[in-house]
Amino acid sequence: MNIHSRLVALAAAVTILGAAPAFAQDEAAHVKPATAYVQKNIEPWLSDPVVVAAIIESNKKHKRLMQEDIAALDKAWVAKDPAVVDPVRKNKLSDFLIQKKDASGGVITEAFVMDNRGLNVGQTDGTSDLWQADEAKWQKTYAVGPGTIFVDKVEEEDGKKIAQVSVTISDKDVAIGAVTFGIDVDKLK
């Protein structure tokens, strides 16, 4: 590569790099306020005994599941089998999450907790599937470790701008599960 080609390549790289932060800031304007909201209003209650006990129990229950067992549970969830759906939708953790959602003044649009296998433990609203470990919400939180917050892109839902914010849930500094919240980003302003 001659000097002219190197200079052209360098100029192109500088142009791209110079534009990237502005683009990233525009695209991710919701990340900072959503993270701040989670840190102030949600993280303090993620160590509540109701949350921790439900996840620990689910982790024990699902410890020996093979991937084909998880796939069968997921299929039963999608088919709305009450034997699979009801234990997740009708438990103390789900009641706790519904209370927190209701108390949020509309900021939280949904919440669901996942165990260390990515299976739902409790939730406020129905999810389309039971197994979340194949999705970024679990992979970028539980799989990363304690103290992790992942803010996904904003999507339009029912006329609202919703970002899913996921957080690793820990017990004694060890990741035990994760939680995902739908956050109405317009309510953070």
Order of helices and strands: HHHHHHEEHEEE
Helix-strand category:
alpha+beta
State the total count of DSSP E strands: 5
Span between N and C termini?
Answer: 51 Å
Low-confidence stretches: 2-27
Residue share in β-strands: 15-25%
What's the mean pLDDT score? 87
Give an account of the 3D structure:
The protein is of the alpha+beta class. The chain has helices at residues 3-27, 31-42, 49-62, 67-78, 82-89, 92-102, 136-139; strands at 108-114, 120-123, 149-157, 160-171, 174-184. The protein has a five-stranded antiparallel beta sheet with strand order 2-1-5-4-3. The longest helix is centred in the N-terminal third of the chain and has 25 residues, at 3-27. The termini are far apart. Mean pLDDT is 87; it is low at 2-27.
Which features does this protein show?
single chain; five-stranded antiparallel β-sheet; disordered N terminus
Write the topology of this structure.
Blueprint: H1 3-27, H2 31-42, H3 49-62, H4 67-78, H5 82-89, H6 92-102, E1 108-114, E2 120-123, H7 136-139, E3 149-157, E4 160-171, E5 174-184
Antiparallel strand pairs: 1-2, 1-5, 3-4, 4-5
